[in-house]
Amino acid sequence: MSSETVTTSQYRWRANSNRLGLWLFLLSDSFVFGGLLVSRFYLLGTAQRPEVSQVVGLVVTAMLLVSSFFMNRAETAIAFGDRKTFLRSTLITLALGTLFLIGVVGVEWQIAPFGPADGAAASLFYAMTGFHAFHVLTGVIFLAIIYRNGRKGLYNEERHWPVEAAAVYWHFIDVVWILFYPSLYLIGTPVL
Amino acid sequence: MDENKKKEAYQIGVSVMILLVVLTIGEFFLGAVASSWWAPLLGVAAIKAYFVIKEYMHLPRLFAGEEEMH
Prior knowledge:
The complex is a heterodimer.
Chain A: H1 8-44, E1 48-49, H2 54-79, H3 83-111, H4 120-151, H5 161-186, E2 189-190
Parallel strand pairs in A: 1-2
Helix pairs in contact in A: 1-4, 1-5, 2-3, 2-5, 3-4, 4-5
Chain B: H1 2-33, H2 38-56, H3 59-62
């Protein structure tokens, strides 16, 4: 069935079904992140943490939080038919997501005074940030597709489910980092 | 009418952002002076996560009918 033959009511019904599917996926994904978080506290307790740069941690956290704001702005814009703001905000989100990746993998991983095999704290740090960074990379690719399709005019105020899906996925990545940030950078004293 | 709704939606986004910035700065300084206070630090993180899930991820939409999309 082509998009022209789908009525707005049918489209909304499908979007509701898709929304449920997306949330079920995110719920299952959160079990993996939850496992990593529990491992961190099981192995290191609340008195220890990896020796990482708190300044870099704060900067990358700020980038991800601001990116979530722009993602929300992009979604709101397309929901009200403001295509220009949607495209601009999506592009800013994409750029901030890329900077976050550079900050974690390109800076934090390089300056860390330990490798992945240097004990439980080190392994956990690389596992948690690596798994999260992989999700950010996926989100960046997702956003690039949304931006490209948005430029082609595929979304409007009535039909923009892919934008909502990208936004919810992006915010999910943000929520995971909101919980990872104090666990890796703030709680406990450095052990390596 | 639509313009008011749009303005309100943007305003919610800005308010949540300000809240996240304030809580993150507070969290950073709390971690710097009292890194053993894991419960308050995780509590602040939970508050931040709650607002992102509710306002940015639109969790209530999951339970709303199709007429209540925006």
